[in-house]
Amino acid sequence: MERPLSKVSSWIATGLTIRAKAELCLIGGVFIWLIVAPPPAAASTSSEFGLSPQELGRLQTPYSEGNQLFSHPTALADYETLTLQGFLTGRYFSSKPEEPTAHMGAAIYIPLASPHQSAWLAGLGFGLGNPVHGLFRAMGSTTPTTPEPQSTESLDLRTTLNSRPHPNLDLAIGLRSLAKLVGSIDVTVADAGNQTFVINRLLTTYRAELEARWSAETWAIQLGYRDRLVIDYDVPIQASLEDPVPLDLPLLSIRGVAFIDPRTAWVAGYSQYSRHTFGWQLRVRLSDAENVGLSGLTPSETRPLPNLPREWLATVSVQPDGASIVPFRLNHAYGVRLIEREPELEVALRTGISAEYQFDQQSLALGCSVEVKLNLTPTTLVCSLGVDTPWEPPQ
Amino acid sequence: MILSSAFLILTPTEVLGSKPDTLGISASGLGHVNSLSSKPWTLAATHPSGLLDCRRRIIAQGYSLSHFQKQIEETTVKSQSTRGFEGGLCLPSRLFNLDAVLGLTWFLPDEHITSLRTRSPRGPMMIFFEDRLDRLVVASSLALGERDLWGIGLGLEHLAITRGTVALRGELLLDELEQPNLEGSIDFLFGGKRRVLASAWVNIAPGLKWSLAYASALGLTIDLDLDFAGDVSSEPDAPLLEDVSLVLASHLYAYGTPPRWTSNIQYETGVGAVSLELSWVQWGVLEVPLPTSTVSTSLREEPVDESSVSNPMRSSLNIGLAFSSEFIDTEPFGRVRIHTGVRYEEPITLRDQAILIDAPKLHTGIAIEYIGTSNNAWPTLSVGGRYIHGFQTLQDSNDPNYGMFRFGLSGYALQSDLEWSW
Fold it and tell me: Which residue of A112, A251, B49, B283 is 20 to 30 Å from A196, comparing CA positions?
């Protein structure tokens, strides 16, 4: 039996058209550049880039092959068989190269109807992206500071339901869940003994996302909206002293925003021409009056947090004709991001690449995304290694 | 000294365990009382290898309600209710040429993920029920083996720990509603903590199955620090105390779920399955669920430590006998199945203290499982309930505030599930 790597070698030597060689050189060049020129940016990796290798390689543009639970809930519609996916994703920031972040995660795609078969409940998906440093790190300060990379990441727990009222129309609703801390602290200090009453509760907060996709045999167009996810906190501290002199301390109230993922809307699609598949997406992140930080130390005091600016991201991706390179599949993608930050517009460029190797019914994939400033200084690099396997009941 | 009060010099908190740990999972689990011979989709949280009984994909979702109350000297002094969504799924497949099943189980309390509070001055805590059921549970497991012969399984239950620091720098004004000269920062990390679940079973004779399960300890720790450095003033730039430094470090342990060894033997008769289950629950090895704190300040020469008392818990033995009938045809209405059982649990606290108390308990449960006439078109409906009776117990505590007193507990739990398979 021919070994896959030797098959690739012979394919590279003999089987490539000039155009395919050019594409491969471009992809290889981008990849090498990604490796040698790492780091930095901010915003949660799962919402900013996605977590699976395919999401990174396509810069979150949609395709007809799934693997995009964290970017497109309607991707569930592409599965014919129940599929498990696992991934390990790392992110490097140029501003904090010594503090990379990483996620381990998994997704389960459970189709309940065949693709293009109408069904009110057509699929169910669960996704988990777990930062390696912990579930969530909340940082804030009343003095302006740059967020630490870890504080921009959080546990990403997704649940997605798909409906297909028409063979070409897929509707999906997703929920992202996160925890927020509420509590209060009351303390009385006395020589006879201290009295303390502390309440500490973790509550669940949810953020909904909706997406609709109309798909034909060779093309699809989809619209999506993701609501705002904000984790704020307010911890009142009430203390009094009985001994040696009676004294009530002022009520302190530590308030702020620990995490925010603003409202986002997108229009996206893909189409196939001459065995190549082209994906595209235009995404807007709406501005928000809040940002991560500490907004006050007493109930009546307000220290305004800076606004989150509006952002635009336009991306295109290409999946070259894969017939001659089976069992491999490649993607490369390019994008531009505009941030409406006062006083001037910030512009950043993105590129992504992924390679997928398919064996038996499993697949192994490696994908990377990188963002650079206009002067080509890299700001952040994200790479992911993932594996997919079907999980069907024995016959 | 003043600022030493500003955070956690805690009196005790006692929040232990979880819903699956205390009452099992699912409506039929409430009726059946034994944890290793319940329905397959419930076993991700208690008996991973038992998932191999899952032969089709199953997803289930239900709602559970429980209510407990305690009596001291015949007077009801505390009652508590807990509600939440509970469900699970199991997904069978093949892996490494063996039968394999992935399972996931969850309990989502209605009101919060976790809820901790220090003890309010209301007397001894009965840790069997107070806040015990009221936390999020998510357990995932994988089983491998050969169906009808043997199986092994491994699972993880997840919980979050908290480490945090509040730092204040500048001038704290005693008589002001705003603190313009005070700067603050926070750094809280919610980390992950996991409990390992391992189990195995083997068919030792036709119709006779022996299972063994182990679950490691799990607990939620909260380490909160307050760090203040600056002046304390009655008005701006008029310090009463200058260059005060204070560091308060507090540690709290809660939701302690003890290590547990469970052995179950199940025999299939012509009319159903009978199972006998023994559990050894090592409450005594848990970290003492009482807080500690240390205050270091420039206002005192020596740090002030507040340490916890000795561990008031002991390990306990539980024994349960349960029966699950075969499906009974009730044409034209469908088929029903009954689960019922009884379980005895030893108390989990020592008798010579009045911080945490517990009584010997008897659990009795019954559940009915109903399948409509068309197995594929309708989900399975289960309704179950359990009554817990705590025997009156005499506590002879060393605490002069309480001395000798008699107490008891009672409670019930109700649940209903819908289960789809395909």
Answer: B283
Q: Is residue A343 part of a domain?
A: yes
How many CB atoms neighbour CB B104 within 10 A?
A: 20
Structural domains present in chain B: 3-421 (2.40.160.60)
User: Facing residues of B382 across strands?
Assistant: B369, B417
Q: pLDDT tens digit string along A78-130?
A: 888 899 999 999 988 887 777 788 889 899 999 988 887 899 989 999 888 88
What is the residue range of A349's domain?
A: 4-165+261-390
Alpha-carbon separation of residue A108 from A45, A87, B56, B89, B215 (angstroms): 20, 12, 16, 12, 26
- Within 185-214 of B, beta carbons closer than 8 Å to A belong to 185-192
Give Cβ neighbours of residue B157 (< 8 Å, ≥ 6 apart): B45, B137, B138, B139, B194, B195, B197, B215, B218, B257
Q: pTM, whole model, 2 decimals?
A: 0.79
- CB of A249 less than 8 A from some CB of B: yes
pLDDT, tens digit (0-9, with 9 covering 90-100), for B26-53? 888 889 888 888 888 888 888 999 999 9
Test A200 with B7 for CB contact under 8 angstroms: no
Residue A291, SS3 per DSSP: coil
Hey, are the CB atoms on A143 and B222 less than 8 Å from each other? no
Q: For residue B202, give both structure tokens.
A: 């083997």
Cβ distance B185 to A124 less than 8 Å, yes or no, reads no
- In a domain, residue A129? The reply is yes
User: What ipTM was assigned to the predicted interfaces of this complex?
Assistant: 0.75
SS3 percent helix, strand, coil of chain A, rounded to 5, is 15, 55, 30
In a domain, A51, yes or no: yes
Q: Which residues of chain B from 229 to 288 reach within 8 Å of chain A, CB to CB?
A: none
Residues of B in contact with A201 (CB under 8 A): 112-116
What is the Cα–Cα distance from B422 to B60, expressed in whole angstroms?
Answer: 12
Structural domain contains residue A382: yes
